[in-house]
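U., I forgot to send this yesterday:
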Amino acid sequence: MSEYRRDPVTDRWVIIAPDRAQRPREMTFDDEDRLESEYCPFCPGHESATPPSIVDFPKDSDHWDVRIVPNKYPAVRSDADDPGSPSPLFERRAGLGTHEVVVESPRHVVSLTDLEADQLERVVGSWRSRLAELAEDTRLEYALLFKNQGARAGATVEHAHSQLMALPMVPTFLEAELQGSRRYFDRHERCVFCDLAEHNLDSGDRLVYANDAVVAFAPFASRFPFELWVTPRGHAAEFQATGSTTNAAIADALGAVLDRLHQALDDPPYNMAVHTAPLRAGPLEHFHWHIEIIPALSNQAGFEWGSGWHINSTPPESAAAHLRKIATDTY
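Result:
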């Protein structure tokens, strides 16, 4: 059974999850080691290979376009027992939460760039719908939507999918974003994310793509080569609260930047995470949801692990300029 443990020096929490060690390793670093669809647990007809669906989209239909299921090897569980803390030095909590898998297509595809525009729009809508449902569980404080694309980015199943983990506390990284954006707002009476979106639209030096509702850019202090952020042009703190009419715009921007990364970097592995406000936080004037996409092009080494800082060998201005030059027929 999993549990949270707190580092008494930094207050950092970690999840100890021994059940995760049982995961099958379908994917390897060898690109030729591919799973045929007839054996894929996420393909239609193989629903018995996963736990029963939490929800299928469209709802009340015999055929699903997007399927959300409990993770078979969860890092956290809704029925976790409290292990108790033997002392303040060794604080632990029950590994409470939910860990879910979003199967992003009934077709056996391996990437969001393999989806048609309308299917990607349905995926975005399912993400937001499920986040709104998780907000109804008052035991949970934060939900993280993330995607590991490719074996080098941590994926263990080839079929296109993302994951949702809902937690009883706000992660340290998100807490730092909330505090930092609050400090900026207190000084300038403006949302820092709104200012970033506006600046990148005006200057264009780190802009990668924009439509009427969403902007994608390489952040000024990029930690990794070709790191990208996707964020709405209008202020919105909660990813799930943004009007459904923007699903197409979000899907369009995601499709555009992922297609450009695919072409520029020869289909790189990457990690993607949606940074959104804590569940039930309501409208926050200082915080703005955004999606971070980090291609797995470099490894953290001694300096990064020892300092918490990053060394990025590709200036974000150069990365953005390169991506802007790439034409795409789909988006």
